[in-house]
Amino acid sequence: MQFTSEQLLDDGVVERAFTLGEIPGTLWKPGSAPAPLVLMAHNNGLPKADPRLVARARYTAARGYAVATIDAAGCGGRSRSAADEQARADLRRAMRAGEPVDEIFESLIGPLVDNAVPEWQTTLDALLQLPGIGGPVGYSGGWTALGIRLAVVEPRIAAAGFFAGGYVPRAQREEARQVTIPLLFLLQWDDEGNPRQRALDLFDAFGSEEKTLHANLGGHTGTPWFELEDGCRFLDRHLK
Amino acid sequence: MQFTSEQLLDDGVVERAFTLGEIPGTLWKPGSAPAPLVLMAHNNGLPKADPRLVARARYTAARGYAVATIDAAGCGGRSRSAADEQARADLRRAMRAGEPVDEIFESLIGPLVDNAVPEWQTTLDALLQLPGIGGPVGYSGGWTALGIRLAVVEPRIAAAGFFAGGYVPRAQREEARQVTIPLLFLLQWDDEGNPRQRALDLFDAFGSEEKTLHANLGGHTGTPWFELEDGCRFLDRHLK
Which SUPFAM superfamilies match (chains A, B) (predicted)? Predict the structure, then answer.
């Protein structure tokens, strides 16, 4: 892991860009005190520099967490496979034509999750070697499908906050019942692109004994600010 | 309003029993500093002295609120009408026989709400005359049907926390769309006696622009402790 830049933010958080082989990432950390690690993955179509992700990461770091994000293979600024480009073109065309998009999402997101998981695990290995970063590890992200897979294969992840706002492939909908860690599941009640019933079914499917759903009125990007605070308190209960 | 007892609790909260005409009530208040008022109504079948209500009231008072509850007409220790006794007997018989109970609940809870509302309003009038108690007023209660009606008829109520755990008469399900104050709606995902879909439909029906659903795994009495904390933070956002 090589750090390529470092910046002290005005809330006392240090923001550092890193590369790990081909993987570019960012780490936010509050000073030098030991902090539990939170992996924060974004909707796969958006880069790790997306302002909403950065704002969530900085807020969470200021609350006492080491927060890391990466652009995994095919995500953010990383190069895309020909199949990936084709699926994205198909998706745009189908959306313009008002055609069903589930199968296209399936062919796009399924492989993205498969390819992202090992890179997130490699990153996790490297981050836990750094001084002042300890377990247990949390996951807090807009990319629920990735979070489900990570929660299933990665025993170091002890709690997860998911946002029910993107397509979850069939494989991860099946895997949901294997997720047993405490969950906070965020739902926007009127999310344009995400059927409410599908999100409620996913919440129902998780195998966790402690799972909480927070639903708020409004569309995809309308999550109220207080959910950020609630999300940190959820992490506090399980990681601190 | 006549105070009939006063007790200083170990968290600095003063608990006072009162009567207001025929209405018996309890008021919890943190010291002498001014505090916003929270009306806390219980599931109508249970008395104001129910330990879970008292625990919620004390916790909320310790967080800086004046909290009041009453046994309204027909509730708790108050005498019941013959029709009320009959409905309760019918309910027990139908439940033993495994028969549908919606119509019996309708005949029981509908009139209870109608009779309770003016008594809660009379109590509200009297409480707001007391020194150190100010508006805006919150409602936090297990009795959602009463809360809906109060939120519709009582402009002094500025925010409400409801628990989706009891029968809500047709009249209040209709009135839900007239509720426009900020809401926090608590749902137990596996509540034995309360169909989940009916609770989700009720959440959907509320006319409020700010409404949040918190759903947790488990049965009727399994609400996790952190929801008490979340409920106070919801009140903090709107009453302080």
Answer: alpha/beta-Hydrolases
Contacts with B214 from chain A: Cβ below 8 Å: 212-214
Q: What pLDDT does residue B142 have?
A: 81
- Give the range of the structural domain holding residue B47, as residue numbers without chain letter: 2-78+117-239
DSSP character for A26?
E
CATH number of the domain at A15, please: 3.40.50.1820
Tokens of B105: 């609940």
Does B108 reside within a domain? no
Check: CB of residue B134 under 8 Å from CB of residue B194.
no
One-letter amino acid for residue A9 of the chain: L
Nearest CA distance, B231 vs chain A (angstrom): 11
DSSP for B83-150, written as a single string: HHHHHHHHHHHHHHHT---HHHHHHHHHHHHHHHHHHHHHHHHHHTTSTTEEEEEEEEES-HHHHHHH
The answer to whether B216 contacts A217, with C-beta atoms less than 8 Å apart, is: no
Q: Which residue has the tokens 């104050």?
A: B181
Q: What is the mean pLDDT of each run of 10 residues along chain B (240 residues)?
A: 95 95 96 91 72 92 96 88 90 92 92 94 96 92 93 97 92 97 97 92 98 96 94 97
> Contact at 8 Å (CB) between B113 and B169?
yes
Residue pair A172/A199 in contact (Cβ under 8 Å)? The answer is no
Number of Cβ within a 10 Å radius of residue A74 = 19
